[in-house]
Amino acid sequence: MDVAELAIALAGTxxxxxxxxxxWLQIRRKPSEKPPATVSAAPTPHNDGDDYDVFISYSHxxxxxxxxxxxxxxxxxxxxxxxxLFLGPTDVIVHKVDAALRDSIHGLVVYSPAxxxxxxxxNEYAVLMRRAIExxxxxxxxxxxxxxxxxxxxxxxxxxxxxxxxxxxAIYGSRVRELAQALRKPT
Length: 187
Prior knowledge:
Number of domains: 2
Distance between the termini: 46 Å
CATH architecture of the largest domain: 3-Layer(aba) Sandwich
CATH superfamily of the largest domain: Toll/interleukin-1 receptor homology (TIR) domain
Largest sheet: 5 strands, parallel
Number of helices: 8
Order of helices and strands: HEHEHHEHHEHEH
Radius of gyration: 17 Å
Number of strands: 5
CATH class of the largest domain: Alpha Beta
Structural class: alpha/beta
Protein backbone atom coordinates (compact mmCIF):
# COMPACT_ATOMS: atom_id res chain seq x y z
CA MET A 1 0.00 0.00 0.00
CA ASP A 2 1.51 3.31 -1.02
CA VAL A 3 1.07 6.64 0.77
CA ALA A 4 -1.79 7.81 -1.48
CA GLU A 5 -3.81 4.64 -0.83
CA LEU A 6 -3.14 4.94 2.89
CA ALA A 7 -4.30 8.57 2.89
CA ILE A 8 -7.49 7.66 1.01
CA ALA A 9 -8.19 4.78 3.41
CA LEU A 10 -7.61 7.06 6.42
CA ALA A 11 -9.89 9.78 4.99
CA GLY A 12 -12.64 7.22 4.34
CA THR A 13 -12.33 5.82 7.85
CA UNK A 14 -12.51 9.28 9.41
CA UNK A 15 -15.55 10.18 7.31
CA UNK A 16 -17.27 6.99 8.47
CA UNK A 17 -16.51 7.73 12.11
CA UNK A 18 -17.80 11.29 11.82
CA UNK A 19 -20.99 10.12 10.07
CA UNK A 20 -21.59 7.45 12.72
CA UNK A 21 -21.06 10.02 15.50
CA UNK A 22 -23.60 12.43 14.02
CA UNK A 23 -26.10 9.59 13.46
CA TRP A 24 -25.61 8.60 17.10
CA LEU A 25 -26.25 12.20 18.18
CA GLN A 26 -29.49 12.24 16.18
CA ILE A 27 -30.67 8.99 17.77
CA ARG A 28 -29.80 9.84 21.37
CA ARG A 29 -31.21 13.39 21.26
CA LYS A 30 -34.47 13.75 23.15
CA PRO A 31 -37.45 14.80 20.97
CA SER A 32 -37.75 18.12 22.84
CA GLU A 33 -34.16 19.12 22.09
CA LYS A 34 -33.41 21.25 19.09
CA PRO A 35 -30.65 19.94 16.86
CA PRO A 36 -27.32 21.71 17.21
CA ALA A 37 -26.72 24.07 14.30
CA THR A 38 -23.63 22.17 13.22
CA VAL A 39 -25.29 18.72 13.06
CA SER A 40 -27.91 19.17 10.36
CA ALA A 41 -30.57 21.41 8.98
CA ALA A 42 -34.19 20.94 10.00
CA PRO A 43 -35.90 17.90 8.50
CA THR A 44 -37.43 18.41 5.10
CA PRO A 45 -41.21 18.48 5.58
CA HIS A 46 -43.34 16.21 3.43
CA ASN A 47 -45.33 18.14 0.87
CA ASP A 48 -47.75 17.10 -1.83
CA GLY A 49 -45.23 18.10 -4.52
CA ASP A 50 -43.19 14.91 -4.02
CA ASP A 51 -43.22 13.00 -7.29
CA TYR A 52 -42.61 9.51 -5.91
CA ASP A 53 -43.56 7.50 -2.85
CA VAL A 54 -40.37 5.44 -3.00
CA PHE A 55 -36.95 5.41 -4.64
CA ILE A 56 -35.74 1.89 -5.43
CA SER A 57 -32.00 1.27 -5.29
CA TYR A 58 -30.83 -1.99 -6.86
CA SER A 59 -28.17 -3.63 -9.01
CA HIS A 60 -28.88 -3.89 -12.73
CA UNK A 61 -27.99 -7.58 -12.43
CA UNK A 62 -31.34 -7.90 -10.59
CA UNK A 63 -33.40 -5.89 -13.08
CA UNK A 64 -35.98 -8.60 -13.85
CA UNK A 65 -36.83 -9.22 -10.20
CA UNK A 66 -36.83 -5.51 -9.37
CA UNK A 67 -39.07 -4.62 -12.33
CA UNK A 68 -41.54 -7.26 -11.10
CA UNK A 69 -41.43 -5.74 -7.59
CA UNK A 70 -41.81 -2.19 -8.94
CA UNK A 71 -44.75 -3.26 -11.10
CA UNK A 72 -46.51 -4.89 -8.17
CA UNK A 73 -45.88 -1.90 -5.91
CA UNK A 74 -47.27 0.34 -8.67
CA UNK A 75 -50.32 -1.92 -8.89
CA UNK A 76 -50.92 -1.17 -5.20
CA UNK A 77 -50.81 2.59 -5.84
CA UNK A 78 -47.17 3.24 -4.91
CA UNK A 79 -45.46 5.83 -7.09
CA UNK A 80 -42.09 4.25 -7.85
CA UNK A 81 -38.82 5.97 -8.80
CA UNK A 82 -36.60 3.43 -10.55
CA UNK A 83 -33.85 4.49 -12.92
CA UNK A 84 -35.37 2.61 -15.86
CA LEU A 85 -38.55 4.65 -15.38
CA PHE A 86 -37.10 8.15 -15.05
CA LEU A 87 -33.93 8.04 -17.19
CA GLY A 88 -34.06 8.86 -20.88
CA PRO A 89 -31.68 9.40 -23.79
CA THR A 90 -29.12 12.20 -23.22
CA ASP A 91 -30.00 12.55 -19.50
CA VAL A 92 -27.10 13.17 -17.16
CA ILE A 93 -27.46 10.10 -14.97
CA VAL A 94 -26.16 11.52 -11.70
CA HIS A 95 -28.42 14.59 -11.98
CA LYS A 96 -31.54 12.54 -12.70
CA VAL A 97 -30.79 10.04 -9.92
CA ASP A 98 -30.15 12.91 -7.51
CA ALA A 99 -33.46 14.55 -8.49
CA ALA A 100 -35.36 11.27 -8.10
CA LEU A 101 -33.81 10.71 -4.66
CA ARG A 102 -34.80 14.24 -3.67
CA ASP A 103 -38.32 13.85 -5.08
CA SER A 104 -39.01 10.53 -3.34
CA ILE A 105 -40.66 10.36 0.05
CA HIS A 106 -39.20 7.00 1.13
CA GLY A 107 -36.33 4.70 0.15
CA LEU A 108 -36.04 1.01 -0.63
CA VAL A 109 -32.86 -0.95 -1.23
CA VAL A 110 -33.07 -4.36 -2.87
CA TYR A 111 -30.31 -6.44 -1.30
CA SER A 112 -28.69 -9.23 -3.29
CA PRO A 113 -25.08 -10.34 -3.75
CA ALA A 114 -24.89 -8.06 -6.81
CA UNK A 115 -26.28 -5.00 -5.00
CA UNK A 116 -23.80 -5.42 -2.15
CA UNK A 117 -20.98 -5.22 -4.72
CA UNK A 118 -22.40 -2.09 -6.40
CA UNK A 119 -20.88 1.33 -5.64
CA UNK A 120 -24.05 3.01 -6.97
CA UNK A 121 -26.21 1.06 -4.52
CA UNK A 122 -23.80 1.84 -1.67
CA ASN A 123 -24.05 5.58 -2.37
CA GLU A 124 -27.83 5.52 -2.78
CA TYR A 125 -28.10 3.53 0.47
CA ALA A 126 -26.08 6.23 2.26
CA VAL A 127 -28.45 8.95 1.04
CA LEU A 128 -31.59 6.95 1.84
CA MET A 129 -30.43 5.97 5.32
CA ARG A 130 -29.39 9.54 6.14
CA ARG A 131 -32.85 10.76 5.09
CA ALA A 132 -34.51 8.02 7.14
CA ILE A 133 -32.61 9.07 10.26
CA GLU A 134 -32.57 12.85 9.85
CA UNK A 135 -35.93 13.40 8.13
CA UNK A 136 -37.88 10.50 9.59
CA UNK A 137 -38.51 8.94 6.19
CA UNK A 138 -39.13 5.24 5.82
CA UNK A 139 -36.29 2.97 4.73
CA UNK A 140 -37.31 -0.45 3.44
CA UNK A 141 -34.71 -3.17 2.98
CA UNK A 142 -35.84 -5.97 0.63
CA UNK A 143 -33.98 -9.28 0.37
CA UNK A 144 -33.82 -11.26 -2.88
CA UNK A 145 -31.68 -14.00 -4.34
CA UNK A 146 -28.92 -15.77 -2.47
CA UNK A 147 -28.23 -13.08 0.15
CA UNK A 148 -27.47 -13.76 3.79
CA UNK A 149 -28.91 -11.39 6.37
CA UNK A 150 -25.44 -11.11 7.94
CA UNK A 151 -24.20 -9.52 4.69
CA UNK A 152 -26.73 -6.65 4.89
CA UNK A 153 -25.38 -3.39 6.44
CA UNK A 154 -26.05 -2.98 10.17
CA UNK A 155 -28.29 0.10 9.88
CA UNK A 156 -30.42 -1.68 7.27
CA UNK A 157 -30.66 -4.80 9.45
CA UNK A 158 -32.05 -2.64 12.24
CA UNK A 159 -35.19 -2.16 10.11
CA UNK A 160 -37.96 -4.66 9.54
CA UNK A 161 -37.12 -6.13 6.15
CA UNK A 162 -39.20 -7.69 3.41
CA UNK A 163 -37.88 -11.14 2.61
CA UNK A 164 -38.72 -12.17 -0.97
CA UNK A 165 -36.18 -15.00 -1.12
CA UNK A 166 -37.58 -18.34 -2.23
CA UNK A 167 -41.22 -17.67 -1.34
CA UNK A 168 -44.39 -18.93 -2.97
CA UNK A 169 -46.34 -16.54 -5.23
CA ALA A 170 -49.00 -16.15 -2.53
CA ILE A 171 -46.48 -15.19 0.15
CA TYR A 172 -44.65 -12.91 -2.31
CA GLY A 173 -47.92 -11.10 -3.05
CA SER A 174 -48.77 -10.79 0.63
CA ARG A 175 -45.36 -9.36 1.50
CA VAL A 176 -45.41 -6.88 -1.39
CA ARG A 177 -48.92 -5.77 -0.36
CA GLU A 178 -47.69 -5.22 3.22
CA LEU A 179 -44.69 -3.26 1.90
CA ALA A 180 -46.94 -1.12 -0.32
CA GLN A 181 -49.17 -0.26 2.62
CA ALA A 182 -46.15 0.88 4.65
CA LEU A 183 -44.83 3.01 1.79
CA ARG A 184 -48.18 4.74 1.28
CA LYS A 185 -48.59 5.69 4.95
CA PRO A 186 -47.80 9.32 5.79
CA THR A 187 -44.56 9.84 7.73
